[in-house]
Amino acid sequence: MYQEKQFENIIGVKGLSEELLRNHISLYQGYVKNTNKLIQALDDLSNEGKADTPEYAELKRRFGWEFNGMRLHEYYFSSISKNASEIDKESGLYKKIAEDFGSYEDWERDFKSTAAIRGIGWAILYYDRDARRLLNVWVNEHDSGHLASALPLLPIDMFEHAYMIDYGLKKADYVSNFLKIIDWKSVAQRFESLQNL
Predict the structure, then answer these.
(1) Which CATH class for the 92-194 domain?
(2) What whole-number distance in Å separates Cα of residue 81 and Cα of residue 186?
(3) pTM above 0.90, yes or no
(4) 14, 47, 78, 114: most buried, per Cβ within 10 A?
């Protein structure tokens, strides 16, 4: 079963209130619990010979929502820090961003535009391991819109719970703050670990 990761270390991060972060972490904990509940329920139905039932099918469909909700929040929370720093211009990630987007500034502009799309979802910097390139992508829901063979490096949660308490309808201000609190070392390590896949 999946264990909740601890994210108390992000409480106090600049531009996101304690209330917002505690609510957001609590939401994440619900995804972990529901992922585990679904695994157990699916196992139970399978063991009872009910894997061909509509109930089993619906739980299988729901599994992607809960699992991706869990995992994307883990990437999101681990990508921000009270000790954020600028991206290392000598890192492989920085060089890859410049190669694939023209410059870091062009990437940031595109990332902001992606995050500004109307609606709820995620803006995600993906690494397409087959083409070995970076892409900024909008994902409507946790479980739909992801790119096959692409792995998330840097997601920003664009569901209202991630910013409304602090920013109201000012999504652009939330995104600008997010870019200031990125833990680029963590994101760069994630990128480096994908190079060998």
Answers:
(1) alpha beta
(2) 9
(3) yes
(4) 114
